Amino acid sequence: MSTDTHTGKLGTALGLCAPLLAAGATMLWFRQVRLVAIPENRSLFVAAWILAIALGLAAFVQRTRWFGGIAAVLGIGIGALLLFTVAISRQEVAPNSIRVGETMPQFTALDERGERFDSASLAGELVLLKFFRGHW
Fold first, then answer.
1. Within a domain: 113
2. Which domain covers residue 58, as residue numbers?
3. Could you tell me if residue 36 is inside a domain?
4. Tens digits of residue pLDDT in 121-130
5. Would residue 124 count as lying in a domain?
């Protein structure tokens, strides 16, 4: 068997693995975002995206076929984009943040009708407050 038949097989396999890893980590990341459960330690996500980028680059070093090259570029792109967004969006919990079960501090705000709302009116009631936090 000649070496020409093996040319590009390893590179193509690496190229195809890159977007699968990047997409899997990204889907898990957005699941955590939807559940408002992003872990404080994001090392596993970061490692997965870095590995996807490395697999994509290794695909070109190993001489991938055209479809492996497209997949490698996709894996590199997804991994780089998500690494970039995680790097620029530090979302840390403030040291004085309110935890579940704690007493709510008094505040006033405008409600959906534009009328003033005072949290003191909820005294003695069980209340669930949900604040939307954008991830951009």
1. no
2. 3-88
3. yes
4. 888 888 777 7
5. no
3 in Cβ contact with 63 (< 8 Å): no
Could you give phi then psi for residue 109, rounded to 5 degrees?
A: -160, 170
Q: What is the pLDDT along the chain (136 residues), one digit of tens a residue?
A: 444 456 679 999 999 999 999 999 999 999 988 887 778 788 999 999 999 999 999 999 999 999 999 999 999 999 999 999 888 876 666 777 777 777 778 888 888 888 898 988 888 888 777 766 665 5
- Please state the domain count of the chain: 1
Amino acid found at 114: G
Instruction: Cite the beta strand spans of the chain per DSSP E.
Output: 108-110, 116-118
Q: Is residue 115 part of a domain?
A: no
54: left (phi over 0), alpha (psi -120 to 50) or beta: alpha
Tokens matching residue 111: 């409600």
